[in-house]
Fold:
Amino acid sequence: MNELTHITQPFIENICTKIRRNEPVRIDLPVWGRIHIDRQLPFLCLYRKPAHREDIGTDRLVISEASYILADASLSTKGLKELIDAIAQTMREEFGAFLLLEVWSRCEEEQNQTIEEQQQEVFTIYSHKRGLLTPVVETLKNQLHHLKINQIQAEARIKHTHTIAPYKMEPVLQTSALEKENIFMIGLAVKPLYHNSNGHELYPFELNKLRKGISRAFKKTFFQFVKRYTSTVPVDYRELGRRGITKTVFNIDNAIAKIEDSFDFLLQVSPVNSKEAWETFKQSNYKTAPRFFIAPAHLIRL
Structure:
């Protein structure tokens, strides 16, 4: 854990310098979390870890993206707002516009719906009133609506609000004022089908299915935003995905290679009594299926 408890101005300036040079940013944040920016991109995903409840798995909904921040909620008043504002301004200078997408899991306290609505609605999209960003918000809604969860069509609803932030958290950007500078924000509350009611136990299979669908929806949403509001013209939404290969990828590759080198697959599935089995098969006038024996794995040495 980082000993610092807040994000300093030199830290922020260092991040912005890397962005201007189009260098990758992969740096741990104080308390908890990290910032990952593959390259210059006019969007950023954000997840803030709540202080008042457990929320296992939600951070993984954004780490598939090329540009994201994971942060402890306590940093919201300790430099996180300034960091995100600086990134937004820096990216806007490069592209002419910027979009922040904050993701959080919906908790029981913030639900003002009937039980039937709560069961059906998986996603709630928060945005300001209808305006310039409406086509982008509609794209996100339509893409999320295409997802199927346990063979049931996911429901997505748009909620217009002045404040875009998770329950009991302050917004990191006052986008109503910043929209004049082409800096926008969308919030996405997700029904946490991937963990139990108290947020301690993870359901990895459900999380993986949801993460893949959400990641595709995000990229198509960013694609719509980039085409409409920036100077960049990507050909395909997949261009906005991750490109950089981190050290973790190499570590995984080395670990898999070591496992592969530890045994010979063909040797382990080859019978040790092929000749005897064939003779027995012939003696039965080819009517009795032969029995093959495989050497125990611990007896096979490369």
Remarks:
- The mean pLDDT is 89.
- The first helix runs from residue 9 to 20.
